[in-house]
Amino acid sequence: MKELNKKVAVITGAGSGIGRALAKSLAARGCRLALSDINDAGLAETAAQLEGAEVRTYRLDVSDRDALYAHAEQVAKAFGQVNLVINNAGVALSASVREMTDEDFRWVMDIDFWGVAHGTRAFLPHLIASGDGHVVNLSSVFGLIGVPKQSAYNAAKFAVRGFTESLRQEMQLEGLPVAVSCVHPGGIRTNIARAARMGKSENAEAQRRGFDKLAMTTPEKAAEIIVRGILRDEARILVGPDAWGIDALNRLLGSAYQPLVARFSRKNLYV
Prior knowledge:
Helix content is 50%, strand content 15%. The chain contains nine helices and nine strands. The longest helix is centred in the middle third of the chain and has 29 residues. Keywords: Oxidoreductase.
């Protein structure tokens, strides 16, 4: 996909953060936008910032498989085609394996993994039919390394990575006109940490302050990096200097990265 003008782009989680920034970046490049979120007020605010763009908004819970498939049909009918799908919606949980509840574990997986998997599969026939499609799935740096108290989030984001990398190879081997990219953001200045669920023993405010200190990249910068990666058909899009550092750490050390992460976590997560 070398040209974005007039392409139909679908973005989940467009009511704030990276999703909103992506909507603005793609609108500036002439995309026609199908934006969704579970937060009606946030979604309306995003749409209000896109004056002059062709935008349709949809209230969508990505954990609802049937709603996602219905959404794909609705968008395809409304726009006549679908070219770009960005499965961005996500949530976070900070809790140990011992402490987290089944409900919280399921909540993270249903949104962060199944929302991506069902969103991809629902739109894939439309992307193929367009003759020039692209799937962009949001993983995380936590899809590259394991981090204490992030086991559920790690599980979802590692799963997104594996699913997406497999899909990219399938599209190439089958000669289908769909590019596939997996995005690994580092610390981005969004509200995901403030909206995260916490285990009972967690010092929530201290952890959120710690995340704010580590958030190096603005959503606007993240969006520009992602859009550039789409235009370059990058398989893996690393967002932020911390993402590049973590990727290098994993490549250089393999599983030996774990003591370093444990040392960092002892100072910053066990508070």
